[in-house]
Give the backbone structure.
Amino acid sequence: MCFSTDFLIEEADEWRSECFKMIKERKDCQFLFLTKRIDRFLSCIPEDWLDGYDNVIVCATIENQKNADYKLDIFQRLPIKHKIITAQPLLENMDIEKYLGEIEEVVVGGESDINARP
């Protein structure tokens, strides 16, 4: 969901609850959403979320150590059943080992356009 945007972006606040209704109804589908705004997560989930929906995977995106320490400290404490980290674009060496306890997958990649940073 929202691969060209962010599911927790403020502009989605007005329609996100309708999307969560569809997600809850379609238990036969897996939903994955990426977010740079994991610090907004608790204010964006539905009341019946509890520890998460079985069919939702939440992916927190990080790109450097400062960002990782801030976001992953929050991410590791959130009530989410399926957690993934995406380090894209990976802009520097990072040590995220202490955050990997409940993480099911880590995706790492760089930038690919003409102005890509090393």
